[in-house]
Design a protein that fits this description.
Structural class of chain A: alpha/beta
Largest sheet of chain B: 4 strands, mixed
Strand order of the largest sheet of chain B: 8-7-6-11
Radius of gyration of chain A: 20 Å
Number of helices of chain A: 11
CATH architecture of the largest domain in chain A: 3-Layer(aba) Sandwich
Shape of chain A: globular
CATH architecture of chain B: Orthogonal Bundle
Number of domains of chain B: 1
CATH superfamily of chain B: Cytochrome-c3 Hydrogenase, chain B
Largest interface: A-B, 58 and 62 residues
Helix content of chain A: 25-40%
Strand content of chain A: 5-15%
Strand order of the largest sheet of chain A: 2-1-3-4-5
CATH class of the largest domain in chain A: Alpha Beta
Number of strands of chain B: 14
Order of helices and strands of chain B: EEEHHHHHHEEHHEEEEEEHHHEEEHHH
CATH topology of chain B: Cytochrome-c3 Hydrogenase, chain B
Radius of gyration of chain B: 21 Å
CATH topology of the largest domain in chain A: Rossmann fold
Structural class of chain B: alpha+beta
Largest sheet of chain A: 5 strands, parallel
Oligomer: heterodimer
Number of domains of chain A: 2
Order of helices and strands of chain A: EHHEEHEHHEHHHHHH
Number of strands of chain A: 5
CATH superfamily of the largest domain in chain A: NADH:ubiquinone oxidoreductase-like, 20kDa subunit
């Protein structure tokens, strides 16, 4: 049989928009099929196999009952790729962690809440080792192709590490702050080619914090526009409650204490 | 005969078919929804209206534009905002874009392999590359129309309360109009393909529910109407549609007059076919779809009819907008106020309702979202039972395949329905 690398797609709690973004590549996807064999992809195919080298996994883990399935996938795959911000950061539903799961169950299902399961929203890396993270809500199709190409050639992949602000300026888009809006572009990981600010919309931080954010400079920008780090971090919680590095959280905590505000509710990942 | 299909393939999300037939009698036939709940209705509480509108599209990767439109409409109603005629037309166009890409995905990639005796479209890449390329072309054109209008299909970036952060560029509108015109041949080929497919003959009358506008085939706004002859104002949906918990489903079920009802392409065509564009009416005739149609498998056919309608409607809307000239309308001022707003759209899979209560600072106090697939689930269970009885004397593989095809014909969007 063919010696092409075997790829499998899986998903957990998510909207499946990142897998659809892969499908949206269109005809170039047909060309990709010359390079790999897609052996499992529940959303698109009925063919199934447990024999694969590369697992592409979308979604976050929210129930203990899903942990074993992810561990099985990890065991079988040589390379595990986390696809999209639900998988890499927790994603747009991560702020569910600020509520008690039993309250959420009661809110949605009423007295039947006890029949169903809910738990802490976790990125895949909280459960298994992740080899490559493709951030974004949704991902950029081009980055997916680039990651697969790196894996096929055995090259290490480094996710983009410049902030969205850098890509926005390269494109000479009008600064959203100048339009009186707030924007997470200065400290959010790029790779999206600043798609939101290209249309005059603020960045909501869907790719998480850059590895080494220049907080002093960010603070200057924010203060110039009358914002505090605390306000910005509250915005950051939308996608990556657990991803905020400890020092950022500590600074926010001290800001908050100075103001005598309510205690910071960040849940430590350890 | 015990049938257990765990994680049915070629549908969005995780669902299992469980059926049991003993001595020719169906004991059980249900579609279990086992998808994890993300609790949008819980965590949207306390968020600002901007965050609500940004996050709402994330309920679904396929119909993100529908969720965005429903959330925007609900928020505008809560704040007492009016939108301009240009914004209304652009939003109608955006809904068409989503219907084109979503129906193309289902008609070609998810449903068609069933009728061609295949497991997926992958074998077609070698045996019939033209068909696969056509499928990608139609889907991509829907994506690209959305990109022109709102920056991205999944998830839109330029749609905000009151309108758009930026209006689309004229040159991009002209270019996409030409591409839509060129797509007519691909849609004619899609109609021919579905003419040749032998869809199962199975009928079970039910209640068909959709939106209705007085003057056009609605994907955006209008009253909620039922084939039983009832109509209710969208903002009063709670008086009509009753959500309830089914023990085998993390998505809530809904009923109105009967035990169950159906939403989606077939319901819309059944209720509103008179408002279809003439080209779509011709396609309907060519495909042998005669409303009222009670065969759930013809939901696939109704989607092909709507593909033709949305293509023609998009070309006409683009020409109208270009002829009138685009006004430079930028993101309007939003003044939050305390209140409740209900937004309704026809997502590709049917009636979608977003209902928000905001406080005077524009923070969300309560959120309720009623998803098309959730509304059709009780009807799907009833159809599964009836179709299993219809097939009861056939070999197990055939029954299983038939039930799988039936679920796929519904085009369920499971993670969306659980949200």
């Amino acid at each position: 049989m063919s010696a092409k690398p075997r790829v499998a797609f899986f998903d957990f709690a998510c909207c499946e928009g990142c897998q659809l973004t892969v499908l949206s590549i269109g005809e170039p996807l047909i060309a990709l099929l010359d390079q790999v064999d897609i052996v499992t992809w529940r959303e698109a195919m009925s063919e199934k196999s447990d024999d694969f080298e590369i697992a592409v996994v979308e979604g976050s883990i929210t129930r203990d009952s899903d942990v074993a399935r992810l561990q099985q996938i990890r065991k079988r795959a040589k390379t595990l790729i986390a696809l999209g911000s639900c998988a890499t950061l927790g994603g747009p539903h991560v702020t569910a962690n600020q509520h008690d799961p039993s309250d959420l169950l009661r809110l949605v299902y009423g007295d039947d809440g006890g029949r169903f399961e809910a738990g802490e929203v976790r990125p895949l890396s909280a459960v298994v080792a992740v080899d490559i993270a493709i951030h974004g809500c949704p991902i950029e199709a081009g980055e997916f192709v680039s990651v697969i190409t790196h894996v096929l050639q055995g090259l290490p992949y480094r996710p983009p590490s410049e902030p969205v602000c850098y890509e926005c300026k390269l494109n000479q888009y009008e600064c959203v702050y100048d339009r009186g809006m707030m924007c997470l572009g200065p400290i959010t990981r790029g790779g999206c080619n600043a798609i939101c600010t290209s249309r005059g919309h603020q960045c909501f931080g869907c790719r998480g914090l850059i590895d080494d954010p220049n907080l002093t400079s960010a603070r200057d920008v924010l203060e110039e526009h009358g914002l505090t780090v605390e306000e910005v971090l509250r915005k950051f919680e939308i996608y990556s409650l657990r991803a905020a590095p400890a020092k950022v959280v500590a600074e926010a905590e001290s800001d908050r204490q100075k103001k005598g505000a309510e205690r910071w509710r960040y849940k430590s990942s350890t | 005969m015990e049938i257990q299909v765990e994680h049915l393939t070629r549908v969005e999300g995780h669902g299992n078919i469980v059926a049991s037939v003993r001595e020719g009698r169906v004991q059980k036939a249900i579609f279990e929804i086992v998808e994890a709940n993300r609790f949008f209705e819980g965590f949207l509480r306390g968020k600002s209206y901007e965050e609500v509108c940004h996050l709402a599209s994330r309920i679904c990767g396929i119909c993100s534009l529908s969720h965005s439109s429903a959330a925007l409409s609900a928020t505008e109603r809560a704040f007492g905002m009016q939108v301009t005629d240009q914004v209304k037309l652009l939003r109608r166009l955006a809904m068409n874009a989503e219907v084109i890409s979503s129906h193309a995905l289902h008609v070609y990639f998810l449903a068609a392999p069933d009728f061609l005796g295949l497991q997926s479209v992958v074998p077609l890449v070698k045996s019939d590359p033209e068909t696969v390329k056509r499928a990608f072309r139609i889907k991509k054109t829907g994506y690209d129309l959305a990109e022109v209008l709102v920056g991205r299909h999944t998830h839109p970036v330029a749609a905000v309360p009151g309108g758009f952060t930026m209006p689309p560029r004229i040159a991009a509108m002209q270019e996409i109009r030409d591409r839509l015109v060129a797509l007519r041949g691909d849609l004619a080929a899609t109609v021919s393909l579905y003419q040749k497919l032998d869809l199962p003959h199975f009928e079970r009358p039910t209640e068909y529910v959709s939106l209705r506008q007085p003057d056009h085939y609605s994907f955006l706004g209008g009253d909620i109407v039922s084939s039983e002859g009832h109509a209710v104002e969208a903002s009063r949906y709670r008086e009509a549609l009753k959500e309830y918990v089914a023990p085998h489903s993390t998505a809530k079920h809904v009923r109105w007059h009967r035990e169950s009802y159906l939403v989606g392409a077939l319901a819309r065509v059944n209720n509103n076919w008179r408002q279809l564009r003439p080209e779509a009416k011709s396609a309907m005739k060519a495909l042998g779809l005669t409303p009222p149609c009670h065969n759930p498998f013809l939901n696939n056919t109704a989607q092909v009819v709507e593909l033709v309608h949305c293509l023609e409607d998009s070309i006409a809307l683009l020409e109208l907008l270009l002829e009138r000239g685009m006004r430079e309308e930028w993101e309007p001022e939003v003044t939050p106020r305390a209140g409740r707003g209900v937004g309704v759209v026809e997502a590709p899979r049917g009636l979608l309702i977003h209902d928000y209560i905001y406080d005077d600072r524009g923070r969300c106090e309560q959120a309720n979202c009623i998803i098309p697939t959730g509304q059709s689930l009780a009807n799907l269970d009833a159809d599964l039972f009836a179709y299993a009885a219809h097939l009861a004397d056939r070999p197990q593989e055939e029954v299983q395949r038939g039930l799988e095809m039936l679920v796929r014909a519904y085009d369920p969007c499971i993670s969306c329905s659980v949200h």
